[in-house]
Amino acid sequence: MRYIDEYRDAAAVRSYVKAINRITRQPWAVMEVCGGQTHAIVKYGIDELLPKTITLWHGPGCPVCVTPVEMIDKAIEIAACPDVIFCSFGDMLRVPGTLRDLLAVKAGGHDIRMVYSPLDAIQIAADYPKKPVVFFAVGFETTAPANAMAIVQARRRKLSNFSMLVSHVRVPPAMEAILDAPNRRVQGFLAAGHVCTVMGYTEYEPIAHKYRVPIVVTGFEPLDILQGVYMCVRQLEAGQASVQNQYSRSVRREGNTRAQWLMQEVFETAPQQWRGMGTISQSGLKLRADYAEFDAERRFGKARPAAEESTECLSGAILQGSKKPAECPAFGTRCTPERPLGATMVSAEGACAAYYRYRRLPAELRVKEN
């Protein structure tokens, strides 16, 4: 394990730990809503530095992890079609569908390409005008503006062979679903700083007011996270519930209005299935009717209902903050990054993958990475 002492601002981190200890009077449960934050928490042992009375739950902040099985199956079905060039970010290739993953389809000889931007897929469509080119558009509001721009570019360049399989999700409705759950444990949130860079945080203010939970927009460094925890716990101890912005160096209250305009031009909100969480109202984005010509589901058919996921996999409970990865009987044995049962073990930002890398041994037995 890479201990916090290796972090460049370790002294500042420890000062925040002391400050949190000073203000904590009762148990609190805080959820971070970002896989990147989860990774930093587990990597640096931030949760182990906190008072025992503070529990950090890991939320549905990994877009790879929450993409539903039926959408993975649809991607596999499209990618296996003759002459199709299927483009995707690399972390989606190993997400298990009902029977196989995209990497297995690629190994079978089909043309599946890993890209780093949706604009790469646009260029491929321009280079191969006689072949259908499909881009797998997944992610939170963070990636939606770039995907919207790709659609606009495809129209401008008259790329009739380009389409997009859209599986975008929105954070605020997922937070409300967690707060509405009958077994709710979460009392405060660390909101994802990169999402708020695009969207701002006005959407979170009604949630804080309705559910009486503090929400702190937080960055991704260990110091950011501990400052976010401190701000959240301070509100909880004072009986307050408002939205605060720890990540002020990147986030404005109104967000990036030009990016929001582009998203609204191309996408509209819709119900969305979340892996392990079910359907959440208005938690997704779909292409507007004006851009339906670029909808891969319209061209290739709707996604089929998925078969049941592995009953061994507890990813749904982990994503909702009611279980930790190590509580899963299959963790680290029947479920590993090489042979994952669920998506939370596939993505580098998945909670199970982070625990597998950094928490397979008790703290006293961990060794530093080379």
Low-confidence stretches: 363-370
From the coordinates shown, what is the CATH architecture of the largest domain?
Answer: 3-Layer(aba) Sandwich
- Placed side by side, the strands forming the largest sheet appear as 4-3-5-6-11-10
Order of helices and strands: HEHHEHHEHEHEHEHEHHEHEHEEHHH
Number of domains: 2
Number of strands: 11
What does this entry look like structurally?
This protein is of the alpha/beta class and 370 residues long. It folds into two domains: 4-63 and 171-245, Rossmann fold (3-Layer(aba) Sandwich); 66-169 and 255-300, HypD, alpha/beta domain 2 (Rossmann fold), CATH 3.40.50. The chain has 16 helices and eleven strands. The chain has helices at residues 10-23, 35-44, 46-49, 63-66, 69-79, 102-107, 118-127, 144-156, 171-180, 193-199, 205-211, 222-238, 257-266, 296-300, 315-319, 351-358, and strands spanning 28-32, 54-58, 85-88, 111-114, 133-139, 162-169, 188-192, 215-218, 243-245, 267-274, 278-287. The strands form two sheets. Strands 4-3-5-6-11-10 form a six-stranded mixed sheet, with helices on both faces. A five-stranded parallel sheet has the order 2-1-7-8-9. Helix 1 packs parallel to helix 12, helix 2 (35-44) packs parallel to helix 16 (351-358) and helix 8 (144-156) crosses helix 13 (257-266). The protein is globular and about 65 Å long. Mean pLDDT is 90; it is low at 363-370.
